[in-house]
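Hey all, quick one. A colleague (J.T.) asked me to put the adenosine-5'-triphosphate job into the tracker so the inputs and the structure tokens live in one place instead of scattered across chat threads. No bug as far as I know, just bookkeeping. Sequence used:
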Amino acid sequence: MNDASPALENLLTETRAFPPSPEFAAQANVTADEYDEAVADRLGFWADRARGLLTWQTPFTTVLDDSRAPRYDWFTDGRLNAAYNAVDRHVEAGNGDRVAILWEGEDGSERRITYAELAAEVARAANAIAGLGIQTGDRVAIYLPMIPEAIVAMLACARIGAPHSVVFGGFSADALHSRILDAQARLVITADGGFRRGAASPLKPAVDDALAKGGTDVEHVLVVRRTGGDVAWTEGRDVWWDDVVPHAPAEHEPVWVEAEHPLFILYTSGTTGKPKGIFHTTGGYLTQCAYTHSAVFDLKPETDVYWCTADIGWVTGHSYVAYGPLVNGATQVVYEGTPDSPHKGRWWEIIQKYGVTIFYTAPTAIRTCMKWGEEIPGGFDLSSLRVLGSVGEPINPEAWMWYRRVIGGDRCPVVDTWWQTETGAIMISPLPGVTATKPGSAQVPLPGISARILDDAGEPVGDGQGGYLAITEPWPAMLRGIWGDERRYAETYWSRFPGRYFAGDGAKYDDDGDIWLLGRVDDVMNVSGHRLSTTEIESALVAHPWVAEAAVVGASDETTGQAVVAFVILRGGDEITDLPTGEDGGEAIVQTLRGHVGQVIGPIAKPRSILVVTELPKTRSGKIMRRLLRDVAENRAVGDVTTLADGGVMDLIQQGLAKG
Ligand code: ATP
Ligand code: MG
């Protein structure tokens, strides 16, 4: 993407907009004034949020230290503790009886944990971990299912200033081994297993295998009992959680760390290639997590029931399950399992059961529910909902409309939140009480965030134009580096446009100056000299009533340079009645969809071929891995599939191709 061709072409137009209702706007946490406040004094704005939203043991006097750019330090002379901010201070403020976690196991088990109970449990776990020899600064790997102990473990590490490195419970022993090595972790916290898709799935064997590969600094493995399954045991190394945590004292003095003390390392989801160990520190990260969680979701801690479906194994589970909501004193649902266990309405049943008011999920989940049909959510009472959020990929406008109508009852603002593991917290998003939302657009940088779309030469583009999304000023929750590789940090993020952070995503401004994410610049296609966005063509396909989900890639083509190849999943459900069937059904579907894309965005975007599939290759966090589809479209051996959620998907697609 370093050629000098014009930036991305602007293909789709969207005219629908949904202003907040007057009632919602009147009660919203944030008004439009905050944009002005932040423009007038950006650093003052963040200093104010840091003081107002967090409790500091030692107040800071410096807001931003840019003397080591591109390493930026925030609130450097302040001291605080993340776990104290997430739990203890709510108890001290008299809110110990408020429920922090409404936990629902996949097998139907339930736990309600108040802030007072959580404070005691975190203190016990911190004492137990310290008893295993972990000191401030040591790294701890966490490899757990979505059980309350996962959050307790993260906070216990934070309490003693030991950075955690959470590894998604679905990752293999190999992936776990490389992450343990990279972070030089001394302790692994795991479980015998967890429940997924209706069955107990073991975790401990992967830890045993990872450690058997050798070379690690791990001294102990702390094991939570969840499924009760048999586990192999290494005497002297392995310790049951139940043998040490419940007996540990429920008092623990938090370690007051400097604002820049590392809080965690997290490896990116690996959509584009080898995962990077992104590391975050304490004060700035917590400030922006707390602010965005309150502003973007309009959180009212006393009355809302918040639910983010993300696993703690990826960044959304860090910022919007473990830290943001707890720092804000929220009551949140945590669910262990998959959305289709034991039935496809499980999520909606949970919303009905707990009266969830704020719901935050990923486009992949929304599109999967579209595929299953709207009669499934239609069978549940979702009237408690008041704000809906989306994160992880561009949300196609029709998926956004479906989310708003079917889940949100045409009443809830939908906030499409753009951010990354690297940014730590939400960067671009509508504000639900301020912004007239537009289906498919993340719209505006939040107050205090400076983002611009740039052309190849690094000049800002104007309204109606596309290019590269860059962050032009440092922000509190920004990554502080790639663990153990400072040079890679500077090269990866700061070299394309010197002095500015390049996010890797393409984007455009519409005529109102709102931002639309267009996919990763590595995925941009060049067809006969036109630079086309995967997202726009996918959105055109999803706009057809037969299509639930689409993935588009550019495959090399002798005449056009690249040609558009599309993979589509069709929609099920009662509402689809006119899908062609029979012998020529498949061909009729393909011709109709090609014609549809031609009509919606123009002949240049018409896919050369469209393949109907039943699954798409996705990362563990649910993102489409287009590079693998490109391998298929170009008849190459399929590349590295280690971060794929389901390794069998690529075989299925290739078998389908061979038959077609
Ligand atoms: P890797 O960097 O290892 O390839 P990844 O980029 O998928 O993995 P994450 O940090 O989890 O890892 O994801 C951030 C990316 O997800 C963004 O750069 C963007 O491409 C995409 N993304 C997240 N939220 C949105 C959104 N609301 N709209 C569009 N794209 C989004
Ligand atoms: Mg990325």
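Adding what we noticed when we looked at it: The chain has two domains: 22-447+457-507, 528-659. Residues 115-131 form the longest helix (17 residues).
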